[in-house]
Amino acid sequence: NGGAFSVPSKCAKLIFPPLDLEAKLPTQELSITDVHGNVWEFRHVYRGNPKRHMFTHNWSQFVDKKKLVGGDSLVFMKNSAGEIYVGIRRVKKFATPAVLQKNELVVIEAVKLADNNEAFEVVYYPTIGDGDNFVVDANVVEDAMKINW
């Protein structure tokens, strides 16, 4: 942890408002909302040798509160209004055979409901399995939100 988080440069440039890199100490305060609606205030700085984007202020509290461990990944998102969100993709843990068998029954039930044009609920646990196929393009979600279901 060390009290700071090194933000990948590509992420910083795509998601965060631009820093004035010509300033003596390029710094900005960022309000980032987690997936539970909690707002986190981070200080985004550009410093070090070699220079890199970093979060300093409140980073340790975020790590402690979210119980981050080595291998966890942060997923930063920005909506069309420019609001920034953060989610956590936990390091993979392997499910036990009993959990897998229960999941199979739930999937079978969902298929039956879908076949009958009935509603069903999807609960996604990013710590189990490979979530790469669960990501939906933002435009698809925004278009779906416009439909009066």
Automatic annotation (TrEMBL):
* Primary localization: nucleus
InterPro entries xrefs: ARF_plant (IPR044835), B3_DNA-bd (IPR003340), DNA-bd_pseudobarrel_sf (IPR015300)
Gene Ontology biological process terms from the UniProt entry: regulation of DNA-templated transcription; response to hormone
**Compartment(s) of residence:** Nucleus
Q: Name one GO cellular component term.
A: nucleus
Q: Which GO terms describe its molecular function?
A: DNA binding
According to the entry, every stretch annotated as the TF-B3 domain falls at 1-92
UniProt keyword annotations, A-Z: DNA-binding, Nucleus, Transcription, Transcription regulation
Q: Name one Pfam family in it.
A: B3
Q: Does the keyword Transcription regulation apply?
A: yes
Q: Any idea what this protein is called?
A: Auxin response factor 17-like
